[in-house]
Amino acid sequence: MFHAAEHATFVGKGRLLACCRKVHVTTVEGAGAGRKRVYRILFAVLIVIGSSCGGFAQPSAERGTMSTVTPEIVKDLAPTGKLRAAINLGNGVLAQGTPLEPRGITVDLARELAKRTGQPLELVTFEAAGKVFEALKTGAWDVAFFAIEPVRAAEVDFSPPYVLIEGTYMVLKDSPLKVIGDVDRPGVRIAVGRGSAYDLFLTRTIKNATIVRAATGGGRAMIDLFFAEKLDVAAGVKQPLVEYAKSDPKVQVMEGRFMVIEQAMGTPKGRPLAAKYLRGFVEEMKASGFVAEALKRSNQPDAAVAPPVTD
Hints:
- This protein is an alpha/beta fold.
- The protein contains twelve helices and twelve strands.
- The chain has three domains: about 1-60, no CATH class; about 70-165 and about 260-305, D-Maltodextrin-Binding Protein, domain 2; about 165-260, D-Maltodextrin-Binding Protein, domain 2, CATH 3.40.190.10.
- Strand 2 and strand 3 form a beta hairpin.
């Protein structure tokens, strides 16, 4: 598509200019008694340049794997003529900033995908992952970034995960609950963000404790609920819980985790070409170092790049 070709042309020009500067230096340094020998060298260098630049006109095999997006794939990814990417600002690992100026790894991935399709990008921001999933019913987005969950997978085709984060618990320092295994007991009440990945996971796995849901799933809603209702435990993504605990000496975050949250890209069911492309796109973004660099730029050292999928 246009952006991929433009990039290839730019790279080609950059390399060609470097070659020309090298030839220029060689020509200047060769003036004098050895003129005939220099002309022979110059002629050989020009042949090399010509053959190399001929290579620039063709996309490399690597670039052609995922950067070349057919019109059929573009139509499946962005049927409205623009790529609408859902950004969850409620998960600070994945996105930061404001609704008007979001940033982070999910924004970076959305921009790279839009560049490859040649379509304009519209970032549709939400306060929580549950809100992203609800908006699927209105057709508000084409691609989204949230955790792989069976409930969501019934309506969304997921890519392999691109990053792994942990779900854990926060308690008061004087709580009798000390380790992850202490939590699932009768009488224990757990604050969660409604519709979040950890809400869905705990709903499936908790057998004895009671789950109490905040009105929304993003930000620190579960922490506010934990204090407001005097609950026993706040469940959530590890990073925001740890960050909050640094500012409040009354609480502590438990060691370990109750789940690994697999963050992935998703597209609505019924778009098979888009789903297939996203699977390859995510694998390439991991293998190329794009995901690792995006996490580094957004200062998320505790988030891990998901391993490659080999099937």
